[in-house]
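Issue 218. Parser rejects a valid record. Input:
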Amino acid sequence: MVSFEVTQDKQKRINATNVILTNVKSNGLPLSILFSFSYLVFVAGSIFIHGTPFLLLTVYVLLSIITFAIYALDKRAAKKGEWRTSENTLHFLALIGGWPGALIAQNQLRHKSQKQPFKTILWMTIVLNCSAFIWLLTPEGAFYTKTLLNEVMSIVY
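Output the parser choked on:
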């Protein structure tokens, strides 16, 4: 079964938009959710293997929860015709570490999951974020992380 919305384009032709397959039985978790959880397990593993600060895993989890919540609020606002969260804000949250929450929200809420330019930019932010994390596992990245954390801790305390 398929559900869709009927719209008209500029030439007044009828189009099906927001097409969604319904009653599709999945044999497991969607790849986007599996990828998100696998990455978080990878980050957790890096704590034990490479001595990555536990704070980074905490940041990923918190930003993912916040990002998921903002997607949910934006979806609700879209349905009600209210003020929307800008796509730049959603991309920024993904870039700084909330991308697992963004992928889960896209899948579970079916929000921002059909708009191809948005999805392309989202995947670019995911690649950049993952690349930055992998760089943090190098000796130079680990030194930078420790230096930055020491600076933050000296300001806090």
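Fixed in the parser; the record now loads. The chain has one domain: 28-156.
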